[in-house]
Design a protein that fits this description.
Layout lengths: L1 E6 L7 H12 L4 E4 L20 H12 L2 E5 L6
Parallel strand pairs: 1-2, 1-3
Length: 79
Amino acid sequence: MKILGISGSLRKASWNTALLHAAVSLLPAHELEIAEIGDLPLINQALEQDSKFPTPVERFRGQILAAFEFFVERVKLVG
């Protein structure tokens, strides 16, 4: 089963991203791919040209369409 992991944190030392990397080794029977979201632009439909978005967006869309399941790790701000 193909699973796409998405970390809500862009920090290199992110605990969320570390959890996703740990899940890769814990789920050897599944294909877990971790999406790179750091290069995605802010939502802006004006970037769409000829029904295509910038390369990072198209890559992410392809990953989402190919995945059967999703793991989303999000940042929890404690204040």
